[in-house]
Amino acid sequence: MFSSLLDVARNSPFRGPLTPAQCEPSSLAAPQAAQSGMAAAAVVQGDSCEFASPKYFALCGLGGILSCGITHTAVVPLDLVKCRLQVDPDKYKNVLTGFKVSVREEGMRGLAKGWAPTFIGYSLQGLCKFGLYEVFKVTYSGMLDEETAYTYRTFVYLAASASAEFFADIALSPLEAAKVRIQTMPGFATTLREAWPKMLQNEGYGTFYKGLVPLWGRQIPYTMMKFACFEKTLELLYKYVVPKPREQCSKGEQLVVTFAAGYIAGVFCAIVSHPADTVVSKLNQDKTATVGSIVGKLGWAGVWKGLGPRIIMIGTLTALQWFIYDAVKVWLRMPRPPPAEMPESMRKRLEAEEAAKSK
């Protein structure tokens, strides 16, 4: 399936606004490139790979592994307290009390509980999330003509990110289930090596995917917001905030803008996905619970418990993920397309329509 998607993306006769600007081919190569429709796949001087090539997508996946694996593991202590606050609010009450109780009962080392399934699970998720997002974004853009792709680019971002997250959550779900058990069930297990066989022996393989549907409910809206909001915020920052064009900014300045856009996107991500996050934590803690029973027990206010720390965690997390992902692209000398710009044909047509109206 993925090879066919790559073929569609690379052989599309359309050149959408989501592909990077390319240097003009040499005079000898120009006619042949124009006839084959592959001019957009040419390697720009200084880049390590072609845009939309298999190597490009593979390196995007590597960037996703590093960005998600590192950042989620770094905030394990906060994630642990957030999960415990969601499943036992009477005991942990708030973030500060949660830290105090956790340290008093298990010591400082206890705050690292669940780091292994977090690192492995979110590395796999990052591989699919970022790698497949790039695949689907290029593919969906290539299915449209240039002006349509630009006009409806937000829908392209939303569709591409939702498609990527669907597969990313299948990779994440088993590790997420183990992580929540380790963090929220005292005495169950302290390591992934202990938790995994115990869950498998007692409940079978189904327990690893029990939370998959609510995980989709949490992660797909989160990821759609994460990518679409980031792309649009980045576009607006360069248009209205950054005092000079992107091409005149240094790599470091561009990474600062990436971080800012990522943080703004992260705040909205936390809000839209939090109720589902609470339900997932409860489901993985209680093997007899259902989505309906949890929502009925907690009520509307209950599913929003822990939103404050999650906004801090997800805002910082998302900003760092985009920063690391973009930094990996810089480090590996990958093509880094600028924010979408209005196609020249569309600009000229709108100018002509405006001129006709003014006559």
From TrEMBL:
GO terms for biological process: mitochondrial phosphate ion transmembrane transport. Solcar repeats lie at residues 55-139, 152-236, 253-331. It comes from the Eukaryota. Gene3D superfamilies: Mitochondrial carrier domain. InterPro entries: MCP_dom_sf, MCP_transmembrane, SLC25A3/Pic2/Mir1-like. One of its GO terms (cellular component) is mitochondrial inner membrane. One of its GO terms (molecular function) is phosphate transmembrane transporter activity. Residues 344-359 have a biased composition (Basic and acidic residues). Keywords: Membrane, Mitochondrion, Mitochondrion inner membrane, Repeat, Transit peptide, Transmembrane, Transmembrane helix, Transport. Residues 340-359 are annotated as: Disordered. It holds the Pfam family Mito_carr. It is a multi-pass membrane protein. It is found in: Mitochondrion inner membrane. Transport of phosphate groups from the cytosol to the mitochondrial matrix. Belongs to the mitochondrial carrier (TC 2.A.29) family. This is Phosphate carrier protein, mitochondrial. The lineage of its organism: Eukaryota, Metazoa, Ecdysozoa, Arthropoda, Hexapoda.
